[in-house]
Design a protein that fits this description.
The chain has 245 residues and is an all-alpha fold. The protein has seven helices and two strands, in the order H-H-E-E-H-H-H-H-H.
Length: 245
């Protein structure tokens, strides 16, 4: 496992956060995240308010008028707590859709000797985004059972599960820009442990509000560096179609 390479790649990515092209993706990420959280909170609070009504009758206390407000505020705080989990699919979607912007910026500064790649077609990027989102959401729904059963170590399960998923996605997207899907999968299997460890490094900030907004940029940049730094070896013989995205 190339731990030193992971931290070197992460350090280079962190040092480029101020790049204007990075800021563009950051602003998009912040906007999408805030829209998602506000929409989720408003919808959940409205639903709780609708099912509780304006007043309720409780034993001993009798009729009370404040119960719906209590539930509404509780629902709002619950949504803020769940925002940690919502950031996983948000980070995935942003990275899938805008990896080209971040990767181009990284390569222009740190790897100017390599050729510029054509941008991923919009519909192809959208397809990858939907596919990865489905996997991430499905796995995290199943993982909720583990979070409840093993509550004291739930955060570590969260990091391990999402580190695996995000590492798999980030590296695949970064690699297939250069070598195509088939070779990207081969390299991902070859560097499995390093990619998972780097994914965990990306998953950890997801559990910290505000800091998690940087994850899409840092993930895309870190794995662009990792692809360039990790040994690639000689590709297996393949047809030209294998290098299509």
């Amino acid at each position: 496992m190339a731990i030193d390479t992971i931290f070197k790649a992460f350090g280079l990515a962190l040092g480029q956060v101020g790049d204007p092209r990075f800021r563009r993706v950051l602003m998009i990420g912040v906007g999408l995240t805030l829209a998602l959280l506000i929409g989720a909170a408003a919808g959940f609070v409205w639903f709780v308010d609708w099912i509780t009504g304006e007043s309720a009758w409780l034993p001993v206390l009798g009729e009370v008028q404040w119960l719906d407000d209590l539930f509404s505020w509780g629902a709002a705080f619950l949504v803020l707590f769940l925002s940690v989990f919502l950031m996983v699919p948000v980070a995935s979607a942003i990275t899938s859709m805008f990896l080209d912007d971040v990767a181009d910026a990284v390569e222009a500064v740190h790897y100017p000797h390599i050729s510029q790649q054509p941008r991923t077609p919009f519909w192809e990027a959208l397809r990858d985004t939907v596919n990865f989102l489905g996997v991430i959401v499905g796995v995290n729904i199943v993982a909720l059972i583990l979070y409840v059963i093993f509550a004291p170590v739930a955060i570590f399960i969260f990091w391990a599960v999402n580190g695996f998923l995000l590492g798999r996605e980030y590296y695949t997207l970064a690699a297939m820009r250069r070598v195509g899907r088939k070779r990207a999968r081969e390299l991902r299997r070859k560097h499995f442990a390093t990619i998972w460890a780097a994914g965990i490094l990306m998953a950890m900030p997801l559990s910290i509000p505000l800091l998690n907004l940087l994850v899409p940029i840092l993930g895309a940049a870190t794995f662009t560096h990792l692809f360039q730094m990790l040994p690639q070896g000689r590709p297996a013989p393949s047809s030209p179609q294998d290098y299509q995205r």
